[in-house]
Amino acid sequence: MQHSASDLELNYSDPRYHLTTRKEITEQSFSGLFRVDREGWPLVPEFIMWPSRLQRLHASILDASDNLIDGLQNTLDQPERSLQEVLGLTGMRKLGLDLIEHVEIHHRTEDKHVLPNFLQRFPNLRRAISLIENDHQFLDNAMDVARIVFGALAQPAVDKSHVASALASASSLDRLLKRHTHDEENILIPATMSGE
Ligand SMILES: [Fe+2]
Ligand SMILES: [Fe+2]
Question: Which of the ligands is closest to the CA of residue 61?
């Protein structure tokens, strides 16, 4: 069968696919995707191998992201005069930077090992895997900005506007990470448990 270029290439700026605008990716999103049955996954014997590890890793990233948001929200509730002390005691800057580093390391492993292996095993998932790669690139750029915003929490003249900016960055990053990890699981986990 002949494919046109548009069948093979993913237009990531299409709002149906872009990380900031899309709804959940399911088997309806791309041809070649396997059926998504999240409740049924733990019942499949293969789940205890790689899929459950991937989900635990994603859960640890999202937990760290939740903790960062809670901590920044609590910091904003403190009096301005004790801001520097609270930031020092709670380590908010380090929490933010550690989260970014953790996600970056995770992405590098996926880009270098996981996704090429999947593509070789499931060539029909090419467009879906391209969506994951585009997400990684977009998240990397978003985290470059967030790194500067979190880093500013260590400056001597820190005030609540810096904390508010860090909270806005952390909240926006959290939304992106939730969408990305959920959809990545929907693309990769059913495939790896399909027996193909
Ligand atoms: Fe990923
Ligand atoms: Fe991942």
Answer: 2
Rounded to the nearest angstrom, the distance between the alpha carbon of 34 and the centre of ligand 1 is 18
Per-residue pLDDT of the chain (196 residues; tens, 9 = 90+): 444 444 568 899 999 999 999 999 999 998 889 999 999 999 998 888 899 999 999 999 999 999 999 999 999 999 988 888 888 888 999 999 999 999 999 999 999 999 999 999 999 999 999 999 999 999 999 999 999 999 999 988 889 999 999 999 999 999 999 999 999 999 999 999 987 7
Q: Give the per-residue SS3 of 144-195.
A: HHHHHHHHHHHCCCCCHHHHHHHHHHHHHHHHHHHHHHHHHHHHHHHHHCCC
Distance 76 CA to ligand 1 centre (A): 31
Q: Nearest-CA neighbor of 181 among 36, 42, 55? A: 55
Q: Closest ligand to 62 CA?
A: 2
> Within 10 A of 46 (CB to CB), how many other CB atoms are there?
14
CA of 59 to the centre of ligand 2 (A): 10
Please list all protein residues whose beta carbon sits less than 5 angstroms from ligand 2, which is an ion: 184
